[in-house]
Description:
Elements: H1 4-8, E1 11-13, H2 14-21, H3 25-33, E2 40-42, E3 47-51, E4 55-57, E5 63-65, H4 69-78, H5 83-91, H6 101-106, H7 110-118
Antiparallel strand pairs: 1-3, 2-3, 4-5
Helix pairs in contact: 2-3, 4-7
Amino acid sequence: MTDLDALVGEWLTLPDLAESLDIEVGKARGLVSDRHVVGIKRGERTTFQVPAIFVLPDVEGRPGVIPTLRGTIMVLSDAQFTEQEILEWLFTPNDELGERPVDSLIGGKRAAVRRVAQTLL
Length: 121
């Protein structure tokens, strides 16, 4: 098991996620249940949290979730990855990509990330 805190860095609780996206907490929960983001229970009080890097400004400067994240989460879920394993995979540097998969997604390399993820099926 890797140290996710060292891999991920900054985390957001559901209320923080909602605030950063300017939405209600219920809608933030919906993002989790619809697999637009993944997270784990962590921290001193074991609250559910998601990586802060999942929220980025969109082309118009408004905050939003990485648009291509959900499809990648679905591919990894199909490979029977747990939320913890999905996060580890997204935040661990990948030799084939030359960077962390999450950074490739942010950089618009969805096809390359999905190709690597599909080899795990």
